[in-house]
Cyanophycin synthetase
Amino acid sequence: MRILKIQTLRGPNYWSIRRHKLIVMRLDLETLAETPSNQIPGFYEGLVEALPSLEGHYCSPGCRGGFLMRVREGTMMGHIVEHVALELQELAGMHVGFGRTRETATPGVYQVVIEYLNEEAGRYAGRAAVRLCQSIVDRGRYPKAELEQDIQDLKDFCRDASLGPSTEAIIKEAEKRGIPWMPLAARFLIQLGYGVNQKRMQATMSDNTGILGVELACDKEATKRILAANGVPVPRGTVINFLDDLEEAIDHVGGYPIVIKPLDGNHGRGITIDIRSWDEAEAAYEAARQVSRSIIVERYYVGRDHRVLVVDGKVVAVAERVPAHVVGNGRSSIAELIEETNQDPNRGEGHDNVLTKIELDRTSYQLLERQGYTLKSVPPKGTICYLRATANLSTGGSAVDRTDEIHPENVWLAQRVVRIIGLDIAGLDIVTSDISRPLREMDAVIVEVNAAPGFRMHVAPSQGIPRNVAGAVMDMLFPNEKPSRIPILSVTGTNGKTTTTRLLAHIYKQTGNVVGYTTTDGTYIGDYLVEAGDNTGPQSAHVILQDPTVEIAVLESARGGILRSGLGFESANVGVVLNVAADHLGIGDIDTIDQLANLKSVVAEAVYPDGYAVLNADDHRVAAMAEKTKANIAYFTMNPDSDLVRKHIQKGGVAAVYENGYLSIVKGDWTHRIERAENIPLTMGGKAPFMIANALAASLAAFVQNVTIEQIRSGLKTFRASVSQTPGRMNLFNLGKYHALVDYAHNPASYEALGSFVRNWTTGQRIGVVGGPGDRRDEDFVTLGKLSADIFDYIIIKEDDDTRGRLRGSASDLITQGITQAKPNCRFESILDETQAINKALDMAPDGSLVVILPESVNRAIKLIKVRGVQEEIQPQSQTTTISDSQNGVAPSSVVNTLL
C-alpha cells in the first residue's frame, strides 16, 4: 500500500457538516486492490492479536464485533485502515469515532477519512494504521513493541499540543454556549467569538485583565505592602538581595519557622516553607535564587493552604490544597507507594491531566527526614507521609473543594482584596486552620494574590464538587447574552462568486458597518486591501474573523478551499449557492457535476437553523440543496412563473424574483420592488441575465439579514463592473481606435455567456486571447476551443505561467483540436507566453475591433492595456442602444451578457 496524500480538514466539509476535524488520506492499495481481507492468509488472526479492542467496533452490521465480522467475511484494506487508525487514537486516550472509506474513480485508490482530536496525532494514526496492516499482510503480525511505540507517540503528540487544563475548561464552556473559538498565532492566545465581538484569553488572563493589576500581583512584596496598608492580614516579611542579609531578615520576621521564596516566582517554584534552621535557610535561599534575584523572607504561619478564586469581583470557587503525600499500608516502602500513586491514570506530566505525578526534590528529602523516614521506610497503615511542603498541584498536590464552607466575611475580604489589586480573574492563597471562620479569628493571612490562576483544582478536585469556574469567565466576557459572533454570509457557485461577494459587501457598506470580505483577487476590510491573491479558503476567512474591527463578514467559499481544508467557520447566518456547472472536474476526486454539487452544498448545510440558505431556484441541483439544510430557505429566480418559487411563497417563504423588468423581493401576498434592472449598472442596462441573477442573490442575502430595501437599492445603483470594484469581471477599456475587454472566464459556461456579448460586436474584428488552467480535463480544453471558434474571428491561444503539472503546449494543442473540429477554416495561432499573446492581440487589432483577453493574471493584463493609453474605462449605464446604433465600433455596455 502507498499513501498518496494526506489532508487535514478543520471545518464543515465534503464528508461531514458536523464532524469538522477529519484527516483525508488518499490510499493506493496497489497489489491489494482486488484482494479482500478473507483472502489474505492469517490476516484476521494477526489483526485480532494486535488490536483485540477492535471487538468494540460496530460497523455496518450494527452490533458489537460487527467490524471484525466484516474482516472475517472479507472487506477491502482501505476500510480496515480506517478502523485501525481510529482505534489507535482511542488507545492513546483520544476518543474518536467517525470514519468513511470510499473508492475513487481510479481503481484501487481509496479516500480514507478518519476523525482526529489532535492534527499531528490524526496524521500519525493514519500512517501507523497503514504500517500495521501492511506488516500483518507481509508477516502475519505487528510487533508489540512497535504498537506500544505508536501509542506512546500518539500520547506525546496529544500532550505536546495540549492547551492546558484552564484553557481547555474555557474552551469546553465556550463550545457548550455556542461561542466559536480559535487559537491565535502567538503566546498561546485563544480568541473567543468573531470580529468586533471577540474576546481573547491567555491561560486565565483575559483582554479585560489590567496590566497594572498583573504587574502588582507579580511583585509579591509590593502586593503585601499595599494590602497591609489597607488593613488586610498578610505575612510579616521582607525582601533581600544578598545572602549576607538573610540572618537579619530572619530576626526581622520574628525568627523560625520561616518561608523563603522568590519575589517573581510562580507555580511553587523555588519556595521552601517551615524552615527551622540556618542550614535549611541557606539551602532555601539558593533554591529561590535560581528563580529570582530578589528573595522574600516571611514568617511561617501554621494552617491549611487554600486557594480562593475570584472572577469579575465574585468568589466562584474555594479549594484546600493538600501537599503531595502517600498513605502507608503497612507493607510498601515510601518509594513503592510513590510509584503506585503515580500509576493513577488521573496523574500525568505537568498540567496535562487532573493531577500531576509526584516527583521528589531536595525539600522532599528534608521533609522525610523531619518525619523520621527515608524512601525505604514502610509507614504504618493509615499514616500520612508528606513529600512536599508546598501544596501546589504542579508538584503532585491534590485539592479538596471547600466552596460551600467559606465564611461570608472571608468572601467579602477576598473580593475586596482583588479590587484593591485590580484584577478581573485572581487566585488568593490563604493560610488558615479553618476557612469557615473569619481570618481575623484564626490569626490567618492572605499569602499571595495570583494573576492567571490555574483552574485545574476547581474543575477537577480530588474530593468534592467540581465547579464551573469557566462559566463565570464566560459570564464576565459575554454578559447578558452579549453577542460573540458577527453575521457571516458565505457565497459559493461555479460562476459569479466574486462578483456576488463584492456586490453583497458593497450593499452592506450602505449600513455603515465595517465589512470584511474575501474574494479570488484578495482579502479586504472596509475600503482597503489586506492581502492580494486568490483568498477564498479558510485561512483568508480567519483573517476576517480575527480582525477586531470587522462587523460583517462576507466570504467567498470556493471548491478548492472546502475540499482541502473545509470551511473556515463553523456556521454562517446566510449561505448563498449561485449555480453548479462543469468546472474543475477530475480534480480532488470530484469527477461529476453531481459530486461538485454535493461539495458546494456544504455552504448551504453549514447555516444556522435560524439562518437562511439562499438558493438558485432555476438550477435544479442547487434547488435540491433545500432538502439537505436545516436552515430557512430563500430562493432567487429569473422566472417569475417558477412553480417552485410560487409554492414556496404560498407557504410563507421569501424569494427574490426578476419580474416585469424589476428586481423584487416577494413574500406572501406582497412584493417589494427594489429597482428596475436597467437602472442597475452591473446588469449592463438590464441586458445581462446572469448579472441580474447575481444581483438578485446578493439583494436577497442582504434582505434576510434585515438590510433595508433603501440600502439594497443604494448599493445596487452605486456598484459598477469596473477595475476598482470587480477587477477581471467584464472590464471594458476604450483605447481610441479599438476596445479591449478583460474577463476571468475560464470554463465552458463562462465562455458561452461571454460569447453573447462578443457576437454582437459588429465592427472590426473580434480577437480572442484564450486559455485555461492546466489542471482541467483534456475534454474541457477541447470544449473551450470549440466555443472560441464560435465566438471569435481570430484566436490567439496562450497558456498560464503555472501549467499545474501539465506539459507546456499540451493545453494549447487540445484547444487547437477543438477549434479545428468546430471551424476548420478558423484563423488562429499559438503564443504560449501570456504577455506576448496579449501584446500581439493589441498590436494587430484593426480599427473598431474588440480584443477579448481571458487571462491567468488579471492585474498583468490590465497593466498591459493601460500602458497603451486608455481613453476611458467604460462604465455600464442604463441605455437601450443596440450594437448596430453604436458609432466607430464602440459597443454600448448595455448589451453585454456575461457570466462572471
About this structure: The CA atoms of residues 514 and 551 lie 5 Å apart.
